Amino acid sequence: MQKVLLVNPDWPGRVSRKGKRFNRAWPPLSLMVCAAMLKERGFEVQIIDGRVEPGWRRRVHKIYGRYEWIVLTSSPLDRWQCPNLEIDHFIGVARSLPLEKLIIVGAHGSLYPEGMLERTGARAVIVGEPEKVLLRLISEHDWSGIPGVAFKVNGTVRFNAKAKPLDMAELPIPAFDLIDFGKYRYELLGNRFALFEASRGCPYRCSFCLKVMFEEGVRFKPVDRLMDEIDRAVTRFGVRTGYFIDLEFTLNRDRTVAICNRLIEQKYPFIWCCQTRADAVDAELLSRMSRAGCRLIHFGVESGSEHILRNTKKRIELAAIQKGVRLTQQAGIDAACFFMFGFPGETPRDMEQTISFAESLNPTYASFHAVTPYPGTSIYKNSIFASTSSTGSLRFPASCPEHNPLFLDSVVRRAFKGFYLRPKYIISRLMQRNIRSWMCQLRLFRGFIT
Fold it and tell me: Is the four-CA dihedral 343, 348, 350, 356 of positive or negative sign?
């Protein structure tokens, strides 16, 4: 029986200095699904999650000799869309492992398979979603016919064509037994926290969105199959909070209603959050979601400038965002809104409009960041980065080249301070009398402005 070690490394700092990514300790769902597929085929599998396990490196180095394969992810599923930017940290982790056993998965290698192979010395890099490709890679001796994998032959990098998007119905229930849910939490929701994936992908083509791990279009997991997953997590593993990590959870309204109805029927001791568009909710749907246990919705607002928002190709208007956030608050559901500064062509006046719009929305939580021009996005393709990148590079810039990073950082800091230190916001939060939530927000706020 072959043994496989799946590793999710930590990343430095509570909030990364480059790109200001909040390094939450969330379950590595993509590794858990990979583990389940491998276990079904008779492999012995273990997961080590450096985000929650102190001394994880010593533990990996102590036991890796027992395993035929080591799979190292640069971005678990919750980071497929917004991976960390400190790639040198990851390279260092990879180089400390036995390279003849090492397989790299995640967004970074999917964007730069040749560069990742060169910098890490790994045996192989999986390009795109890893689940089925990893199973074949470990099961077969001849890799020449396996799509979605890059590897070296006589010193030359060979990359087979990308694998076809997998059928969500083929994914097994994640290997919940390989992690300890007591170590995971979402500070805005609570403890014993899990991630669930009801769909994969998004039909929109926003200029800033990295979708190298998702491909085009949307694939849905059967509702019955999803409910089996939730039932096992809640009843057998004591999960009490969860996040539907779909890019647009309410994209299919009827399907969302069906999921909510099943949750209402089951009466689980389970609350959850999701991410969706502000124009993809309505009063009746939000009421049903609230009854089903939804306590928080993430909305990507992006900009408070109409013309900047239009240039992102997000295909939404400020009025629709205002309506969606207002209806969410009226339904008793918290709203977390995300804003960015530094889009191509954005002026300081546009940035001020974004700050003003955030304050006028007055969501429960607001997050501000500089735009990250990820390779593969249209923002990156239209920048000078694209013309100067080589196939062996691993370039992950933190901001668009036309904007001064120090200026953007000052705008982000001012936006955080201006939003959270307003008397209107402080009073509204105190009136909710939720001290735990308020303290969590203060810690988050301090992490982003220091």
Answer: positive
Q: What is the distance between the terminal CA atoms of the chain, rounded to a whole angstrom?
A: 49
Neighbour-count burial of 414, counting CB atoms closer than 10 A to its CB (0-12 exposed, 13-18 middle, 19+ buried): middle
Considering the four listed CATH numbers 3.30.390.30, 3.40.50.880, 3.40.50.280, 3.40.50.170, the one that applies to the domain covering 3-159 is: 3.40.50.280
Q: And the tokens for 397?
A: 């810039």
CA-CA-CA-CA torsion sign (255, 256, 259, 265): negative
Cβ(237)–Cβ(176) under 8 Å?
A: yes
The ranges assigned to domains in the chain are 3-159, 180-449
| Rounded distance between C-alpha atoms, residue 302 and residue 308, angstroms | 9
CB 43 within 8 A of CB 3: yes
CATH class name, domain 180-449: alpha beta
Which residues contact residue 138 at a Cβ distance below 8 angstroms, ignoring those fewer than 6 apart? 2, 4, 38, 43, 69, 103
* Angle made by CA atoms 31, 207, 300, in degrees to the nearest 5: 65
Which whole-number Å values give the CA distances from 407 to 55, 348, 351, 411, 421, in the listed order? 37, 10, 11, 6, 21
- Between CA 183 and CA 191 the distance in angstroms is 8
Look at the chain and count its residues.
450
Q: Which of 296, 179, 173 is nearest to 227 (CA)?
A: 173
Question: Tens digit of pLDDT for each residue in 314-340?
Answer: 999 999 999 999 999 999 999 999 999
What distance in Å separates the CA atoms of residue 260 and residue 198, rounded to the nearest whole number? 12
Q: Which sign, positive or negative, has the C-alpha torsion 41, 67, 108, 391?
A: negative
Cα–Cα distance, 373 to 343 (Å, whole number): 9
Please give the average pLDDT of every successive group of 10 residues along the chain, which has 450 residues: 95 86 93 98 97 96 96 97 94 97 97 95 97 96 94 89 92 98 95 98 95 92 98 98 98 98 97 98 98 98 98 97 98 97 97 98 94 94 71 83 94 94 81 63 58
CA distance 224 to 114: 40
